[in-house]
Amino acid sequence: MRPVIPYVTAALLFGLGTYGVLRRRNAVLVLIAVELMLNAVNLILVTADTTVRSQLPHGGQVFALFVIVLAAAEVGVGLAIVLQLYRLRASVAVDEVPLAEPPPATAATPGEADR
Amino acid sequence: MTGTDALLLALGALAVGSGALAVTTRHLVRAGLYLVLCLAAVAGMYLVLTAELVAWVQVLIYVGAVVVLLLFAVMLTRAPIGASTDLDRPGWPAALIGGGTGLGLAALLVDAYRWSSVPLPTAGSAERIGEQIFGSWVLPFEVLSVLLLAALVGAIILSRPDIGRSPVDQAGVSGADEASAEGRRSR
Fold it and tell me: Dihedral of CA A57/B135/B153/B78: which sign?
């Protein structure tokens, strides 16, 4: 088995994921690109597990399983955020989200109450 | 070039090709389906690399659960059925950074491994992985279960707008005039 084949595949998948994260405007497509990047990392871990002899056997595969669980948790929370964004703005374009939200008008009310 | 290498090469080409389609297609639903193809090809590579348990967990969790969640999100955000023209930003910086990252990492790994050959270990079983998880890695495993619980609770709180709101916002919703009347009274 030539380890260079899966390693190069993983590197190219990671590059594609980076391209997708930077290129896409739709938040769901950004999440899909993030999944591609996580998969590339998993492929690196599993390939390293079969090619590198380590003190603890199968550490790479255990790490890959952990990363899969982390990806499941990430996509759950990420989709909750995307749906909330859609509910607030009726759009999931990530470059239309203002980074600094203007303060809501009602926030001034308690300050007046203090006076 | 043995049969294993040919299989890995074919599955790798399939994964990279469908991954490229997933990040470039103009159809939202097709992006999810190309992602399924890419994940399945990577699961096939895991099988060739003698990581059976990881391969089947990948099929179950990624192809089963994660992609279904993504397709649900596509539907719930009322994505158009046909091709959409507003999915992408202008792509030169993204292509530069993505291509640089991918090709740079590939060059690094090619330089590290060249065309060397490594004997594959004997096919693994779930038993050996289970021994490792519940032996050496049991503490991270338990921490991970706590993290899953936290993610679950977080997703529930995020998707319910009526809980976790600050009292100021609640006053703003239940009646801003009431709050301002209170302010006037205290003045």
Answer: positive
Domain A4-95 has CATH 1.10.287.3510: yes
Structure confidence by residue, pLDDT tens digits, A47-87? 999 888 777 788 899 999 999 999 999 999 999 989 888 88
B117 and B156 both lie in a single domain: no
B9, B59: one domain:
yes
Q: Which CATH number belongs to the domain containing residue B42 in this structure?
A: 1.20.120.1200
The string over A21-36, giving b where at least 16 C-beta atoms fall within 10 Å of a residue's C-beta and e elsewhere, is bbbbbbbbbbbbbbbb
- List the 87-106 stretch of A: residues with Cβ below 8 A of B: 87, 92-93, 95, 104-106
How is chain A split into domains, by residue range? 4-95
Tell me: do B7 and B98 sit in the same domain.
Answer: yes
Model pTM? 0.83
Residue B130 lies in a domain: no
Q: Could you read off the pLDDT of B36-81 as tens digits, one per residue?
A: 999 999 999 999 998 999 999 999 998 888 999 998 888 888 777 7
pLDDT at A111 over 80: no
Contacts of A15 in chain B (CB under 8 A): 98-103, 105-106
Is B112 exposed, middle or buried (CB count within 10 Å of its CB: 0-12, 13-18, 19+)?
A: exposed
My answer on whether B96 and B67 are in the same domain is yes
Among B49, B67, B148, which would you mutate to test the A interface (most chain A Cβ atoms within 10 Å of its Cβ)? B49
**Is residue B17's pLDDT more than 70?**
yes
CB A14 within 8 A of CB B105: yes
Structural domain containing residue B119: 1-83+91-124
Tell me: do B104 and B144 sit in the same domain. Answer: no
Single out the residue of A113, A54, A48, A73 nearest to residue B171, CA to CA.
A113
Predicted ipTM?
0.83
